[in-house]
């Protein structure tokens, strides 16, 4: 009746629909499969919805699309990870997939040559020099360091290096706009001041202890060697050059006072 040809086979009955589970038979992964059936994290695209949702996306929308084929082993391995990733990006980036076996002509038209092929569709808001700059910076590899409560304590508060830290939240629009600028800052001060980032959604207590009330918040932690202690100061600027100038001026101030 259900064409069961191997054991174990797990089948989920959702009203009149029958869904066969493919994957490792662990409770965690089966629960993820059921959750995804009830609340899909990945949008199943067809040529018409691809054109409407992706090609003609709103100016501030971002899409990641997996072009796959059901017979492709790498596609099968990727799919559960793809869905898991999509759940972590809910509200930030739209995630979709399109079956290139079923829509072969469309995928050929889109010049898809291998499976799986993942494509990123950035916002359609490149209108001026500033937006072009932010867009270009977004493709540079990360230079700043992702900090955790432990590394904030060990490397920043108990260390002997100067740090500039971006306290942000993943869902925060201004934080996303500032992120490329912060990476540029990290390159400009590399070798003199370390640059770090703290995810205040994941580490809310750390951010609370740092006195963070809004996102993004940039703080400069400078080590005063003569006093063997840290000073800190909030930076309101959001331009890499302006922040760099502020930091270098702050580091030069003790020397100027000493010379006088």
From TrEMBL:
<dbReference type="GO" id="GO:0015035">
    <property type="term" value="F:protein-disulfide reductase activity"/>
</dbReference>
<dbReference type="Pfam" id="PF00085">
    <property type="entry name" value="Thioredoxin"/>
</dbReference>
<feature type="domain" description="Thioredoxin">
    <location>
        <begin position="138"/>
        <end position="252"/>
    </location>
</feature>
<dbReference type="InterPro" id="IPR017937">
    <property type="entry name" value="Thioredoxin_CS"/>
</dbReference>
<dbReference type="GO" id="GO:0016671">
    <property type="term" value="F:oxidoreductase activity, acting on a sulfur group of donors, disulfide as acceptor"/>
</dbReference>
<dbReference type="InterPro" id="IPR036249">
    <property type="entry name" value="Thioredoxin-like_sf"/>
</dbReference>
<dbReference type="GO" id="GO:0036498">
    <property type="term" value="P:IRE1-mediated unfolded protein response"/>
</dbReference>
<dbReference type="InterPro" id="IPR013766">
    <property type="entry name" value="Thioredoxin_domain"/>
</dbReference>
<dbReference type="GO" id="GO:0051787">
    <property type="term" value="F:misfolded protein binding"/>
</dbReference>
<dbReference type="InterPro" id="IPR035674">
    <property type="entry name" value="ERdj5_TRX_C"/>
</dbReference>
<dbReference type="GO" id="GO:0005788">
    <property type="term" value="C:endoplasmic reticulum lumen"/>
</dbReference>
<protein>
    <recommendedName>
        <fullName>Thioredoxin domain-containing protein</fullName>
    </recommendedName>
</protein>
<dbReference type="InterPro" id="IPR052460">
    <property type="entry name" value="ER_disulfide_reductase"/>
</dbReference>
């Amino acid at each position: 009746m259900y064409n069961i040809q191997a054991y174990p086979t797990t089948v989920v009955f959702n009203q009149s629909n029958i869904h066969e589970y493919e994957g490792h038979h662990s409770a965690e992964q089966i629960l993820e499969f059921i959750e995804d059936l009830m609340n899909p994290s990945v949008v199943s695209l067809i040529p018409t919805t691809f054109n409407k949702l992706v090609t003609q996306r709103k100016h501030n929308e971002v899409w990641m699309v997996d072009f796959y084929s059901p017979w492709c082993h790498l596609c099968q391995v990727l799919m559960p990870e793809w869905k898991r990733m999509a759940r972590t990006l809910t509200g930030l980036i739209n995630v979709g997939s399109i079956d290139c076996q079923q829509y072969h002509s469309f995928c050929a038209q889109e010049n898809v040559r291998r499976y799986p092929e993942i494509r990123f569709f950035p916002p359609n808001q490149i209108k001026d020099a500033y937006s072009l700059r932010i867009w270009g910076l977004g493709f540079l590899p990360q230079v700043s360091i992702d900090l955790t409560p432990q590394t904030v304590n060990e490397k920043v508060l108990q260390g002997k290096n100067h740090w500039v830290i971006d306290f942000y939240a993943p869902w925060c629009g201004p934080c996303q706009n500032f992120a490329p600028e912060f990476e540029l800052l990290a390159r400009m001060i590399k070798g003199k001041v370390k640059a770090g980032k703290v995810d205040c959604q994941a580490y809310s207590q750390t951010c609370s202890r740092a006195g963070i009330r809004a996102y993004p918040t940039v703080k400069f932690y400078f080590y005063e060697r003569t006093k063997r202690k840290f000073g800190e100061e909030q930076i309101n600027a959001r331009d890499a050059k302006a922040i760099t100038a502020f930091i270098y001026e702050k580091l030069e101030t003790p020397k100027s006072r000493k010379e006088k």
